[in-house]
Amino acid sequence: MSQTVTKKLMLFFPRCECEKPIIYHLVKDYNLVVNIFRAKVTPEEEGYLVLDVTGTEEDIERALAFVKTFNVSINYSGKGVTRDENSCTHCGLCITHCPTGALRIGDKSTREVIYSEADCIECLACIRVCPFGALASAF
Amino acid sequence: MKTYKQINDRIESGKAVVLTAGEIMDYVDKKGLAAAAKEVDVVTTATFGPMCSSGCFLNFGHSKPKIRMSEAWVEDVLVYTGIAAVDVYLGATQLRHGDPANMYHPGEFRYGGGHVIEDLVAGKKLQLFALSYGTDCYPLRELRTYFTINDLNQAIMVNPRNCYQNYNVAVNDSDRTIYTYMGILEPERKNANYCSAGQLSPLLNDPYYDVIGVGTKVWLAGAHGHVYAEGTQHAGACERTPEGIPKGGAGTLALTGDMKQMRPEFVRGVTFRGYGVSLALGIGIPIPILNEDVLRRTCVRDRDIMAPVVDFSQDYPQNTGKVICYVSYEQLRSGQIEVEGKKIAVGSLSSYYKALRIANLLADEIRRGDFRLAEPIEPLAKDKKMKSLVTRKKPS
Rounded to the nearest 10 degrees, how much is the dihedral formed by the CA atoms of B277, B213, B380, B321? Predict the structure, then answer.
């Protein structure tokens, strides 16, 4: 059996695709384990979804090809919570509020605060704490 | 022994030996105090953090016809006009007109005086709206225009209190989340916040104000400014460690500098949810190594500096003066402190990362011969105590 990998994705569902059970098919037809961090349907009936998918590379590839047959956009890099590198002053006020250590001191000597997107579970605690407005939610 | 003149001559010739307050301890450990004092000319100190007692004087020049502004707003933030016709003072903590503040607690405070100052330095176009009662010499009653910092005659930062020598570590002993100028504090001492650059901080490297005084030249957000007075609430007569390091707030500095020379990355508006707005500033102060004593004091390390842990739910607001315990900056920087047997996660409002950058930028400027030192014209008081405000009944 080939090795499984985990990928973090953000999906955007335009109005016409919101009512289709796409995630159900990822589990049933493509054997993926899904871990949904955050989902939202806007008043315009558009949908946002940030999730981890775990499966073989091959299954993930097939699943994403399936998702693309709908009008759904897949964002592989910029996720639901982003940090503006110019706004961050690396003070470290966010660190105690981050439950997963996605925001942490990277280098003990310079005390640079790093943001590891892969470790973020999108609780949004940092956004209300940051004095410089450096962190933002995509939705 | 060295004099300011000797040090400035060496700076001018590009031969000055300059180290940061983060490097000097290891250097002195290696070379010995006496040899290092001969060799090193300057140690650079720095800090970057919110400093509420900051603001600036702006002069707009005269419109046609002229106006004597009696009320004015920049980007809808009220400025003080109780001075000459087109001079105003813009304060860092002023809220924007119509901000609901804490009416819906905790308020968001997205924009205010500190953010206007940031936008000014960043060269953004801003709105001025001014009203007047009109006079014979200043007939205009209302004015709305758009300007950048380059349109102003002067934009001079004048900060009554910067560079607090040391500061509280804030915790919350209550059972609800509190929203303070020390950040959001979770109930039951779940987190603690501090605000100092510790071993890099200017006045912790000169604890008895031997070299930093009125007239000292400083690096104020990239501009060459100076100390114009002792800061408000300056209180050097405080509890100190056996080595002389203050165990609380203690000294402060009043600073001024030309905003047109400042760099936007070191002038940043601050938002504290549930509290208000402020301004974070980057400041660097050079310490001239005049003798061994001055050098020895710059060798202070985070482990030697103690900060008081204070409850911000009761003791701070009620002004009880109670200190739960003292912790060192070494402990604070480890990310966890232990208070009365409980481990508490620690966050910082002050950016050590930026302070380190400033200490290095200032060191480079001095090495290049672009920043000369100034000898103070007046020392800072060592014997002042902090007074509280007494609320009295009207005398009969």
Answer: 30
Which A-chain residues 79-138 have CB contacts (< 8 A) with chain B? 86, 89-97, 105, 110-113, 128-129, 131-133
- Choose from A93, A108, A124, A127 for mutation: most chain B CBs within 10 A: A93
Which band of pLDDT confidence, cut at 50, 70 and 90, is reported for residue A1?
low
Q: What angle (nearest 5°) sits at the alpha carbon of residue B339, between those of residues B334 and B345?
A: 40
Distance CA B179, CA B170 (A): 11
- CA of B233 vs chain A CAs: smallest distance (Å): 25
- Nearest Cβ partner of B271 from A94, A112, A131? A131
CB-CB under 8 Å, A89 with B271: no
Neighbouring CB atoms inside 10 A of B98's CB total 7
Residue owning tokens 């980007």? B75
Q: Three-state DSSP class for B259?
A: helix
Domain end marker among A43, A75, A107: A75
CATH of the domain at A108: 3.30.70.20
* Domain boundaries defined on chain B: 55-157
Nearest residue to B292 (alpha-carbon basis) of B186, B210, B392, B198 = B210
Cβ-defined contact of A129 to B273 (cutoff 8 Å): yes
Q: What is the ipTM of this complex?
A: 0.94
Domain count, chain A: 2
Q: How many CB pairs under 8 A join A and B?
A: 72
Whether B351 and A90 lie within 8 Å, measured CB to CB: yes
Asked whether the beta carbons of A50 and A73 are under 8 A apart, the reply is no
Answer yes or no: do A59 and A87 share one domain: no
Where are any strands of DSSP class E within B76-165? 77-79, 87-91, 126-131, 142-147, 154-162
Verify whether residue B137 is a known catalytic residue. yes
Tell me the residue range of the domain where A88 lies: 81-137
Q: How far is B396 from chain A (nearest CA, A)?
A: 47
B183: nearest CA partner in chain A: A129
Same domain, A91 and A50: no
- Determine the residue of chain B that is closest to A132 in CA distance: B270
Query: Which residue among B52, B137, B195, B325 is the active-site one?
Result: B137
Which CATH number goes with the domain that contains A38? 3.30.70.260
pLDDT beyond 90 at A78: no
pLDDT tens string A39-76: 999 888 899 999 999 999 999 999 999 999 999 999 98
Render pLDDT for B183-214 as a digit per residue (tens, 0 to 9): 999 999 999 999 999 999 999 999 999 999 99
Regions of chain B short of the pLDDT cut 50: none
What is the per-residue pLDDT across B237-269, written as a single tens digit (0 to 9) for each?
999 999 999 999 999 999 999 999 999 999 999
Are A14 and A68 contained in the same domain? yes
